[in-house]
Amino acid sequence: MSGQHLTQAFDASLWREGLADGTRSKYVEHVRLFLTTLSVEPQDATRQDLEDYVDSLILAGLAVSTIRLRIAALRRFYDFLDDRELLPGRNPALRLKSPKRRKKPNDWLRADEDLALYRACVTPHERIVHALLRYAGLRVGEACALLQEDVDLEAKTIRVRVSKADSGLRTVPMARELADELHSWLAYVERHGHRHAGLPVLVTTNGTPMKAQFAWRMVKRAAHRADVRALPPPKLSSISPHTLRRTFGSDLLNRGMRMETISKLLGHADTRVTEACYAEMLDETVLAEWDALAS
Questions:
Q1: Rounded CA gap, 163 and 145, in Å?
Q2: Residues paired with 284 in a beta bridge
């Protein structure tokens, strides 16, 4: 089977496994790039071929996160070949090691930044996008896919039915701030003739879902206006919608919520992901708990 047919079959296999479209396309593209470097058929590549390829990525100065993603794609690809019994010998990716990633500080808003950004969101669109990301911890794609029927104002819950993975399908309770903004937003939507269960919550004037890129830029524009990590235009601010998602998790942790519960609310399958990247405990919280036990 040729490299092109293998990548097509690999893509189909990932789709059948339910991998998110974005992740699937990245894996397939990274495998295609790898195959262009090979002088043999993919199934005949040795571990040394794979190690040489990884070394070339390091010498090219690629970011550690990019190299780790490409190695993950290779592992997945050779697991696929192994599963299809297309490898003549041992899986060459089995012992392929990824470079260690140095932990970065968690990118979340401290109290003054959080308040400044909240106050800077002045239009109905800015306020509802900010509220869904900050007070429900939604991914921007989840917020844009949310339907009006997924919002239960009476029960004060949001049902996330479209996510990047099955673990992301969940019900999120509405914080008071989010409930207030949803009441205002849905009244605004109704006045403009777009109040319908089957329509998106973030509905445009054409009755279509708001684009994720538009929501992304809206957050950055409001952050620049609030002087929250502002950058010169056109970049506007270093924060992103994911910064608000991390703020949601870190705020709950520092108010005493268990990591397991925060992980569930964020739609993570593993609390280690939440702890590593999405919920950071402040030194003040640690000291307050110490003082409470010591008194």
A1: 9
A2: none
